[in-house]
Amino acid sequence: MPSRAYLTAKVQVKIITVILLLMLLVPLLTGYPSLTAADVQLKIGVYENSPKIFTREEGTPAGIFIDIIQEIAKKEGWEITYIPGTWAEGLERLAAGSIDLMPDVAYSSERDDRFDYHSNPVLASWFQVYAKEESDIRTILDLDGKKPSGYWRTPFSTTPFLLSSESFEYR
Question: Per-residue pLDDT tens for 43-99?
């Protein structure tokens, strides 16, 4: 026959199990509020880089990234607050933790040490090449052997173009 101490310990385990189950089930059965997607509130930086992200004349955020963010927020039940500023201000705010997301930040290993990046690109880079009407340049393939010149905003602007042109084995 089991000892009295054994029976007492067994009863205690059963009581604790029942209490734990009640703690889990009562909120579910009573509709007690718990953390859900609707409780997610995100602050998102907005700057001017049309058509990807920009501010309309009336002051509302717009662009390809904003459309995607709003669609995800609608499906997930997120509440979004947009924080306007320059791109540099947005990046500073992201680093300081005063915003949660900064759309369209080009990858760099230095930034990768500080920020989380998604693994699937939202957009591929695109390029526009302008040439004189009388030139024979009609497609990117016509640039083979030629040296493009012009205005590059940042090194991040040139890198995708150079990588793209390398894939065509340009000289």
Answer: 999 999 998 899 999 999 999 999 999 999 999 899 999 999 999 999 999 999 999
Per the structure, the complete domain to which residue 8 belongs is given by 1-33
Residue 78 phi, psi (nearest 5): -80, 150
What is the spatial distance between Cα 74 and Cα 35, in angstroms, rounded to a whole number? 17
CB count, 10 Å around CB of 72?
12
All residues at 6 or more sequence positions from 87 whose CB lies less than 8 Å from its CB, including other chains: 47, 48, 49
3-class SS of residue 9: helix
Q: How many structural domains compose the chain?
A: 3
Judgement on whether residues 47 and 93 belong to the same structural domain of the protein: yes
pTM of the model: 0.57
